[in-house]
């Protein structure tokens, strides 16, 4: 049976790959985007996840068009890198507001319908940086690490309602964000990855699709790295 799925930040990169794979698996897929135009073939909803009213309006629109959200993928995020000594308070708080509090906002709105239906899947897209740390990314690492504690708390809260909550932690992925790093930095990163390459967005999406599937019904509170071995041991 086709389910109603929502992917935040689904207009490019990992989010778009997730939307495509969920749709290929038979789900009705909506995606949020903050700017630009949504990709064709999906229900696109413009939404800034730092605004609770916009989050509520986005969910209401999705519910009207394709029913209660049964699969939520919290993927929207941002970076604002700077060494701690030079990082402004706004740069720190804005990254947490988008990446971590944004996940809180969408998850809180999603669980209303999931609890009524006594079923649901919530998948948070974190990062290997949340486990390893990264110089110049104290704000990003704090937000991505915080997702793990948040998800595991929700897994304990919602398990009795047949709602699973899991975290996927990608490593470095071949997206527009990593393309901006420059060849030297990309080569430096790849040299530290045991598999010797960047991930493709579809490889992250495949794990998300599994966690959203009926086959993952007994998986909750898990942190699954998809990082080519970069963060092993964490």
From TrEMBL:
Gene3D superfamilies per record: NAD(P)-binding Rossmann-like Domain
Positions of the Ketoreductase domain: 3-176
E.C. numbers: 1.1.1.100
Any single Pfam family the record assigns to this protein: adh_short_C2
Molecular function GO labels: 3-oxoacyl-[acyl-carrier-protein] reductase (NADPH) activity
Keyword presence, Oxidoreductase: yes
Coiled-coil ranges per UniProt: none
Keywords: Oxidoreductase
Keyword hit for Oxidoreductase: yes
Top enzyme category: oxidoreductase
Superkingdom of this protein's organism: Bacteria
Family according to the record: Belongs to the short-chain dehydrogenases/reductases (SDR) family.
Name the UniProt record assigns to this protein: 3-oxoacyl-ACP reductase FabG
Organism: Lipingzhangella rawalii
């Amino acid at each position: 049976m086709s389910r109603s799925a929502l992917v935040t930040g689904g207009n490019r990169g990992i989010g778009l790959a997730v939307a495509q794979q969920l749709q290929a698996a038979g789900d009705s897929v909506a995606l949020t985007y903050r700017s630009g135009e949504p990709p064709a073939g999906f229900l696109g909803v413009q939404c800034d996840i730092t605004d609770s009213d916009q989050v509520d309006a986005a969910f209401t629109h999705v519910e009207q068009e394709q029913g209660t959200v049964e699969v939520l993928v919290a993927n929207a995020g941002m970076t604002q890198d700077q060494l701690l000594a030079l990082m402004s308070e706004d740069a720190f708080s804005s990254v947490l507001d988008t990446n971590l509090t944004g996940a809180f906002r969408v998850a809180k709105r999603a669980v209303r319908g999931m609890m009524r239906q006594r079923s649901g899947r919530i998948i948070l897209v974190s990062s290997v940086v949340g486990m390893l740390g990264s110089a110049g990314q104290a704000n990003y690492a704090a937000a991505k690490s915080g997702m793990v504690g948040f998800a595991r708390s929700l897994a304990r809260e919602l398990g009795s309602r047949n709602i699973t909550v899991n975290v996927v932690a990608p490593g470095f992925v071949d997206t527009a964000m990593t393309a901006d790093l420059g060849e030297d930095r990309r080569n430096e990163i790849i040299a530290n990855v045991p598999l010797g390459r960047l991930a493709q967005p579809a490889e992250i999406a495949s794990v998300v699709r599994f966690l959203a599937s009926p086959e993952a019904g007994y998986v909750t509170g898990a942190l699954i790295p998809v990082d080519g071995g970069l963060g092993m041991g964490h």
